[in-house]
TrEMBL record:
Belongs to the ABC transporter superfamily. The keyword ATP-binding applies. This is ABC transporter ATP-binding protein. NCBIfam families: oligo_HPY. Keywords: ATP-binding, Nucleotide-binding, Transport.
Length: 444
């Protein structure tokens, strides 16, 4: 196997190990009558440098695990490239793929289910070695014993079974197995999320020690920001299959540029209760990855969304009500009507969407909205009640769309040190996100 040595030098002085280019991973959606695909990872590009710990953070369902699995080729990419040392591994197959896989391993979140309970610890750790026909049986045994001690377990554990171990010990076994073939790159998928806090710290220390000893490069996935902050050199923040922001850990935590990151960070409990950090509660729920927004992925929940010019003077409260109403209508348009409801609709007996009246009353009740707005809401309400939530959804889009609804932003540089953020507000003609968020929190 020839190694391509076209390596790029990056600012930090460290060379690029993994280069991800326009990577997409969609599930399903093939076939003429299939539902639209789940866009788990939707066009992401970034680089991981040799020897660093690159963090990936985001809410549950944002596509972190899918991205991790696709990088190590446990899943095939739908589109895009993944280059290791300049070599595209998404096109590998058969023996070449098997050989390459030695370099890139994965540690899973749940040490409970990721270890086969019928195998001894020794067998579990030797499994990848045997699968790759690594040396002799005696060598493999010795290697397994060596790995046990590397991860802080004892030789006598070799003949025991996973159920005899605690969560933390099982995760040590998972780590030993991942390291058996001496990989350069390891995806750690929430490796401590399932563990007690006291155990988390020990496993993290172990991972740091192993990284230094074996020159490992980590992709560290977590939904816990404090863990990421502690261990990662750089961080990418994911939302609905997209990277919203990326940068050096310290810088990103100190001065997040993206409204999503700003919202996430404001939700962390601060050790010092007097610290003056604005708190933003994100409205609404994340959209379905089968039906993501056309424009910015975060546009349906963004507290710094850019409003269309013709509605420039609307208050934030009215906008929030419009956005929540659009969300209600969107949810209705996602539900397919059953045969009975379709028949009732034709007979004029349809009542399934009558709760839309309550939604309008709740959302717009005490608000002083201009006529253009109330007219648009009223006609959408009628459309929904008539069983046409799709039409209502489109009409609302036509009436209220701004740039965030219509266009995908690009991930662009926002600092000299390589921080990047995905937001229309970084264009010079708009107020920056933090100004908007500050004003909104002052108004409260
Ligand atoms: P995270 O790790 O950030 O919680 P995942 O990568 O597990 O997110 O999931 C991202 C999205 O892809 C979710 O909507 C999830 O339901 C969907 N998904 C993940 N794996 C599959 C699969 N094998 N088939 C269909 N959908 C999947
Ligand atoms: Mg996950």
């Amino acid at each position: 196997m020839s190694k391509v040595t076209e390596r790029t030098q990056t600012e930090g002085g460290r060379e690029t190990l993994v280069s991800v280019e326009n990577l997409k991973k969609y599930y399903g959606g093939e076939g003429m009558f299939a539902d639209p695909p789940v866009k788990a990872v939707d066009d992401v590009s970034f680089e991981i440098r040799r020897g660093e710990t690159f963090g990936l953070v985001g809410e549950s369902g944002s596509g972190k695990s899918t991205l991790g699995r696709t990088l190590v080729q446990l899943e095939r990419a739908t589109e895009g490239r993944v280059l290791f040392d300049g070599r595209d591994v998404t096109t590998l197959s058969g023996d070449e793929l098997k050989q390459w896989r030695r370099n890139a391993q994965m540690v899973f979140q749940d040490p409970e289910s990721s270890l086969n309970d019928r195998m001894t610890i020794g067998e579990i750790i030797m499994e990848p070695l045997s699968a790759h026909g690594w040396k002799t049986k005696q060598d493999r045994r010795e290697r397994a014993l060596e790995l046990l001690s590397e991860v802080g377990l004892q030789e006598e554990h070799y003949y025991r079974y996973p159920h005899q171990f605690s969560g933390g010990q099982r995760q040590r076994i998972g780590i030993a197995r991942a390291l058996a073939l001496e990989p350069e790159f390891v995806v750690l998928d929430e490796p401590v999320s399932a563990l007690d806090v006291s155990v988390q710290a020990k496993i993290i220390t172990l991972l740091e020690d192993l990284q230094a000893e074996f020159d490992l490069t980590y992709l560290f996935i977590a939904h816990d920001l404090s863990v990421i902050r502690h261990i990662c050199d750089r961080v990418a923040v994911m939302y609905l299959g997209k990277i919203m922001e990326l940068g050096e850990t310290g810088e990103l935590f100190e001065s997040p540029a993206n409204p999503y990151t700003q919202s996430l960070l404001s939700a962390i409990p601060r050790p010092d209760p007097t610290a003056d950090r604005q708190r933003i509660t994100l409205p609404g729920t994340p959209p379905s990855p089968r039906d993501p927004p056309v424009g910015c992925q975060f546009s349906t929940r963004c507290p710094a969304k850019i409003y269309p010019e013709e509605y420039d003077d609307l208050s934030d409260d009215v906008w929030d009500a419009i956005e929540r109403f659009r969300e209600v209508v969107r949810e209705r348009s996602r539900q397919e009507l059953g045969l009975v409801d379709q028949a009732r609709l034709r007979l004029g007996l349809f009542s399934k969407y009558d709760d839309i009246d309550e939604a309008v009353a709740d959302l717009f009740g005490g608000l002083d909205a201009p006529e253009a707005v109330t007219d648009a809401i009223e006609s959408a309400r009628e459309q929904v009640k008539a069983g046409n939530p799709d039409a209502a959804r489109e009409a609302l889009f036509d009436e209220f769309n701004g740039i965030c609804d219509r266009e995908r932003p690009v991930l662009q540089g926002v600092s000299d040190s390589g921080q990047q953020s995905y937001c229309h507000r970084h264009a010079p003609e708009y107020e920056p996100p933090e100004t908007v968020l500050q004003r909104r929190s002052d108004d409260e």
